[in-house]
Amino acid sequence: xxHRLLRDSLAQGLVRFDANGQIEPGLAERWIVIDDGxxxxxxxxxxxxxxxxxxxxxxxxxxxxxxxxxxxxxxLAPFLTAIDEIVVxxxxxxxxxxSRPRPDLLKLFAQPEMAIIDRSRHGTGxxxxxxxxxxxxxxxxxxxxxxxxxxDAAPSPEDDVALFSESAARALLRFSQGRxxxxxxxxxNDWPLLDQLRVSPAAIRVxxxxxxxxxxxxxxxxxxxxxxxxxxxxxxxxxxxxxxxIAPNWEATDRLLxxxxxxxxxxxxxxxxxxxxxxxxxxxxxxxxxxxxxVALRIALPRxxxxxxxxGQIGAALLGVGxxxxxxxxxxxxxxxxxxxxxxxDSARWYLAMACAPCGDAARIAIDRARIxxxxxxxSAAIAAADAAVNSDVSYIPLARPLRWSLVTNRLRQYQANSxxxxxxxxxxxxxx
Length: 433
Description:
Layout: H1 2-10, E1 15-17, E2 23-25, E3 28-34, E4 39-44, H2 57-68, E5 83-90, E6 93-98, H3 105-109, E7 127-131, E8 136-140, E9 161-163, H4 168-176, E10 182-186, E11 204-207, E12 211-217, H5 227-235, H6 239-244, H7 277-291, E13 295-300, H8 305-320, E14 323-328, E15 336-342, H9 348-355, H10 361-372, H11 376-393, E16 396-400, E17 404-408
Parallel strand pairs: 13-14, 13-15
Antiparallel strand pairs: 1-2, 3-4, 4-6, 5-6, 7-8, 8-9, 10-17, 11-17, 12-15, 12-16
């Protein structure tokens, strides 16, 4: 998260997220959508790079083309394949032409990964670096749209932001001692640390984050080669008990999609959803015994007390049905790998693509059909079919939505919890650019 927050602070895309996680202007002061979502036209505002030279449409288009082509190594590149062409229409207007309609394109363009950064001129604000080191010192850049020409609008040292990139334990201690105004980006593995410090409950802000928290089935050999075994594995967990052991009021889920989103059918519900926990665990024991040889599963998890609690709960459930668990590092070869990700945009295709890592041929083909569907109606139908295919394939074990939280003092009155779990530094105070 620190690098994303810094990128968002030093540069902006065509659009940005505001304090509520909604779209606001960035480099583009306005835009229109034409051809039934087949084309987005952006009018750029007058702005300058950090070295004082004007930003041109040609520069913006060249940078966007590199991003879309995947040459920027952006993790969003696989979701930008509908972009057919990006062209300069006038010195202040660019057009993004699509081969297929994408109603969620603006939310993709608002991601920090899509911020426009020139290799030599860097970004366009809303901040600039005034001192490197620890902490990194940022100072707001005057926004010409808001500056009063009759007043001295130059930022003062009181406007500066000291940005620390440190462990959750250090950040929590700093906040509890009154030496910082905010700790952003808390996750499930850090949550239990709150019990060790005296922090006002009013300072703890939990985001209603949309996304995925569960296990992808990373290895489909041996016991996990059979989808019936994978389904029995998914069914045996007492999700609410697992989550309650880590954080209170963390709501469990047994399905991949949080809502209908852009599918034309409700989210798929697993076949075991109506069975009792005892019945589900008995069925899992039968599958393990029928396998006829010991079953061991490697579980890839991050470090942290929350991850320790998660492993304890998952491991106990596996041992209860005759499966031996082994904890491994997040990047080590594994059978189950934790997925803990906030959705960058509100499309079921993101959830399906994230869950399909890997998945069977039928599910993969169904997801690809949704990607290339030529109309929104056909795309919605294809997404519903893909959801059904992924549910049958059992390539992912859903547990919950991501737990994202922050610590915030009363000084930062503009802070707003939101489904993106994203909090731009220039939207934490009232007097920002």
